[in-house]
Amino acid sequence: MLILECPYCGVKAEETELGAGGEAHLKRYGPGSDDDQFHDYLFMRENPKGVHFERWRHSNGCGKWFHAARCTMTMEVFGTYSAQTYEPPQEIKDKITAKRPGWSWREFSDASE
Amino acid sequence: MSNPVTATNGAQFAGIATVADAGLQGMITLRGDLSSSVLQAAVKAATGAAVPAQRKIEISDNGAAAWMSPDELLLLVPYEQAVAKTAELAEALKGEHALAANVSDARSFLSIAGEGARETLAKIAPVDLSAEAFKPGDFRRSRTAQVAAAFWLQKDGSFRVVCFRSVGAYMFNLLSASAHPQSAVGVYTA
């Protein structure tokens, strides 16, 4: 059972109280972009064994969307953070680096590498 | 005006706890900036209660204000006054980025009282309801079996449960099953 702490109401919510929202930090390209970019936005998803970033919604609670960083292999949760951001906060990245040196995920990676 | 009734119309069940329809309750959903002094004054005027802290409920003599999310409150007022209070709130909040809506008839309101009240609710909600973790004045939005619900603990040790009216009968049956006399687990009894 996955337990995530909602950054908006501070509840340590278990999975049944949450709604999964798929991969985090997807970028939708605007006017002037080409078909390949739109294709990638629609279909290309990460499927990592290890560090992963996801969107979740506290659907049976405060109703807010938030981000979570976790490990798909061990179910370890590195942290949750606000939805109003384009990339994981440094604090979350540091926590991941401490536990999974050399991690990388899309354009984000261990800064010490 | 028609004669308003609740979804379960005064139903009651006694088991390890007493589950009862808590009757008609005026409820107003208020969204806005909870740190705004205009909003805080409007909440005080409507309910007599202050804006609650995160996951808390502030109860006054004939009203209450409960924390639903970082930008939402649930205001409890007497049922007959809900329409007027909603209008007063809208007037008081003019110019604010806020919205007050009367949701009294969209909700069901139940109570769980007695020895087994904590256990009755704990069996169906993924929430730590032990005496150390959940105290009077604590408020929580969560899930009870298959439906969303909000509940809080009164000073007298009884719970109040708020859910959508459309699932009011389901909620009553669910709580009754959870309070069945032969279903006691005794997890929260000393």
What does this structure look like?
- The complex is a heterodimer of chains A (113) and B (190).
- Chain A has 2 helices and 8 strands; from the N terminus they run E-E-E-H-E-E-E-H-E-E.
- By secondary structure, chain A is of the alpha+beta class.
- Chain A has a domain at 19-25 and 39-109: Folate-binding superfamily (Folate-binding fold, 2-Layer Sandwich), CATH 3.30.2270.
- In chain A, the strands form 3 sheets. Chain A has a 4-stranded antiparallel sheet with strand order 3-4-5-6. Chain A has a two-stranded antiparallel sheet with strand order 1-2.
- The model of chain A has no long low-confidence stretch (mean pLDDT 94).
- Chain B is an alpha+beta fold and 190 residues long.
- Helix content of chain B is 21%, strand content 31%.
- A 6-stranded antiparallel sheet of chain B has the order 1-2-8-11-10-9. A 5-stranded antiparallel sheet of chain B has the order 4-5-6-3-7, covered by helices on one side.
- The longest helix of chain B is centred in the first third of the chain and has 11 residues, at 37-47.
- The chains are: A alpha+beta (113), B alpha+beta (190).
- At the A-B interface, loops of A face strand 9 of B.
Tell me the layout of helices and strands.
The complex is a heterodimer of chains A (113) and B (190).
Chain A (H helix, E strand, L loop, with lengths): L2 E3 L6 E3 L4 E5 L11 H9 L7 E7 L7 E7 L5 E6 L7 H10 L4 E2 L2 E2 L4
Antiparallel strand pairs in A: 1-2, 3-4, 4-5, 5-6, 7-8
Chain B lengths: L11 E3 L3 E4 L4 E6 L5 H11 L9 E3 L4 E6 L2 E6 L4 H11 L6 E4 L4 E7 L3 H6 L16 E6 L2 E7 L5 E6 L3 H11 L12
Antiparallel strand pairs in B: 1-2, 2-8, 3-6, 3-7, 4-5, 5-6, 8-11, 9-10, 10-11
Helix pairs in contact in B: 1-2
* Contiguous helical run count of chain B: 4
Helix-strand makeup class of chain B: alpha+beta
**Which class of secondary structure composition applies to the elements of chain A?**
alpha+beta
| Overall form of chain B | globular
What is the count of structural domains of chain B? 2
Major sheet attributes of chain A: 4 strands, antiparallel
CATH class of the largest domain in chain B: Alpha Beta
Distance N terminus to C terminus of chain A? 33 Å
Q: Which overall shape of chain A is indicated by the principal axes computed on the Cα atoms?
A: globular
By DSSP (H or I, 4+ residues per run), the number of helices of chain A equals 2
The CATH H-level superfamily of the largest domain in chain B is: Probable tRNA modification gtpase trme, domain 1
Instruction: Outline the biggest β-sheet of chain B.
Output: 6 strands, antiparallel
Quaternary status of these chains? heterodimer
Helix content of chain B: 10-25%
* Low-confidence blocks of residues of chain B: none
Largest interface: A-B, 14 and 12 residues
